[in-house]
Amino acid sequence: MKERFKLAVCQMEVTEDKKENIKKAVCLIKEAAENKAELVVLPEMFNCPYDNKMFPIFAEELDGGETVTALKEAAAQAGVYVAAGSIPESSENKIYNTSIIFDKKGSIIAKHRKMHLFDINIPGKIVFKESDILAPGDEVTVVDTELCKLGIAICYDMRFPELFRIMALKGAELVLVPGAFNMVTGPAHWESLIRIRAVDNQVYVAAASPARNINSGYVAYGNSMIAEPWGNIISRTDERESIIYADIDSAHMEKVRNELPLLKNRRTDIYELKEK
What we know:
- 25% of the residues lie in helices and 28% in strands.
- Strands 5-4-3-2-1-14 form a six-stranded mixed β-sheet. A six-stranded mixed β-sheet has the order 8-9-10-11-12-13, with helices on one face. It has a two-stranded antiparallel ribbon with strand order 6-7.
- By secondary structure, the chain is α/β, with parallel strands linked by helices.
- Helix 4 links the parallel strand 9 (149-152) and strand 10.
- The protein has helices at 18-34, 55-58, 66-78, 161-169, 185-201, 250-259; strands spanning 4-11, 39-41, 81-91, 94-102, 108-113, 119-122, 126-129, 141-144, 149-152, 174-178, 204-208, 225-227, 233-236, 242-249.
- It is globular and about 50 Å long.
């Protein structure tokens, strides 16, 4: 892990104009790079409204798709790693909610397909069923970079502690969570989950939300934030479009892990967590 590097989390407003969404994402990447960020994170479904009806319309293949092509070029031109939030990915007659990681040369080095689909029914407040349109991923994603080992989870994935613990055991030091919590679940759980996942696994957690658009059919909570391994929020924004920054510090993570050795103190003689 690099001793220290600057992380940027971009909170952007998403519209029904795919080309404009892509153009805005590219501009945010450029701005973050100009501010010395080495890793730039985009929100969940940054090129597409969070709407089951829209996913098939906006879906594209990773090979040659317009979003991927534009972001490859943006990462290479800016010379930064880009975690491309997520987009609707078309593959073999299925649609996935997929995050793509680009290196500084614009090459794809990892992808994560959302494993846990957002199927909820809170009477009188919100009903959503991603599984009507989307297929679930089935792989835990941890990728080694020159900055650190990155874990990737998407939105609802954050509610499942087993996934984060497996990523930590695989060596993840920073977990990226593009997520579009809504105005019901966001105020209730967004910050708590970010802090708890950081504390439980003694990792940095960076959560990137779309900006809040009250005219959208699905209103995102916003409030993108970054937590450090002790559980403090070290950078955050409100509901508006913005970029937040934080230094990711390997010495701080090691200090926390040495002082409170949770991962070392697990009772693996009594219980274990297996990845199939």
